[in-house]
């Protein structure tokens, strides 16, 4: 069966999609291992995890085409990697892995594709592969919905993790304690029901010293109120409130 070569545009878009998908996967793994309280960790685990993540990310990226010569990006763009000697056979896992190592110099690889008649980059030449349009590609709507769904999952995960990180910090817990013990706030809002899904603000800790700012939405059975809290943390000390406004 004669297959058409994949266009350069499709290959570039597939590469970009794969990059973001693998980055999202790697970041998700790192965040889950760190836990929501990673902001206030003072051990070397975050640093060690960052070092370990580099080879893990490379393994994921180099092995992205391992499922029948198709990565997520290639599936979205309807293209597939096949043997140079046979357009119906998927290359071996080793060849699929090896062909992606040269993507470390991907700008040069795409220059090579421009001038190669079979649109082969160095990785393809080394692994003896060619990228074709997939004759058995999935219909367009499921592929589009997959991209949209992945984007929604990505942003939902990041927002949920950030919210969880802010809420589990000792600075936030101290701010909530101050709010719950403030008689004026309780009289105005009534019984406190919730503090909203995600507080705005930030926590910054360097060498054991920290600064935190929060804008907390206090939801009561009478009304809602925004409370602005600023805190500092001396080295080897506990968080202290420096400003409390409502």
Automatic annotation (TrEMBL):
Coiled coil: none
Transmembrane segments: 12-33, 45-63, 144-163
Listed GO CC annotations: plasma membrane
Entry keyword set: Cell membrane, Membrane, Transmembrane, Transmembrane helix
Membrane topology: Multi-pass membrane protein
Compartment(s) where it occurs, according to its Swiss-Prot or TrEMBL record: Cell membrane
InterPro entries given in the database record: Pra-immunoreactive, RDD
Main location class: membrane
Keyword check for Transcription: no
Residue ranges annotated for the RDD domain, each copy included: 6-128
Keyword Membrane in annotation: yes
Protein name: Putative RDD family membrane protein YckC
């Amino acid at each position: 069966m004669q297959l058409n070569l994949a266009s350069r545009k499709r290959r570039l878009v597939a590469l970009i999609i794969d990059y973001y998908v693998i980055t999202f996967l790697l970041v998700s793994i790192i965040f889950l291992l760190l836990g929501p309280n990673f902001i206030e960790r003072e051990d070397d685990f975050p640093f060690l995890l960052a070092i370990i993540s580099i080879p893990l990310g490379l393994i994921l990226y180099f092995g992205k085409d391992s499922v029948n010569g198709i990565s997520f990006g290639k599936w979205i763009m309807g293209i597939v990697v096949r043997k140079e000697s046979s357009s119906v056979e998927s290359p071996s896992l080793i060849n699929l892995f090896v062909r992606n190592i040269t993507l470390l110099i991907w700008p040069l690889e795409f220059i090579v594709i421009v001038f190669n008649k079979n649109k082969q980059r160095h990785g393809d030449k080394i692994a003896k592969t060619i990228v074709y349009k997939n004759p058995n590609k999935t219909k367009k709507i499921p592929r589009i919905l997959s991209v949209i769904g992945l984007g929604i999952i990505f942003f939902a995960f990041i927002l949920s993790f950030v919210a969880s990180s802010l809420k589990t910090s000792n600075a936030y817990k101290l701010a909530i304690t101050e709010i719950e013990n403030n008689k004026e706030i309780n009289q105005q809002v009534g019984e406190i029901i919730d503090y909203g899904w995600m507080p705005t603000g930030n926590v910054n800790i360097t060498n054991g010293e920290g600064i935190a700012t929060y804008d907390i939405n206090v939801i009561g059975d009478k009304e809602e109120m925004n409370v602005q809290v600023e805190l500092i943390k001396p080295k080897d000390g506990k968080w202290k409130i420096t400003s409390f406004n409502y």
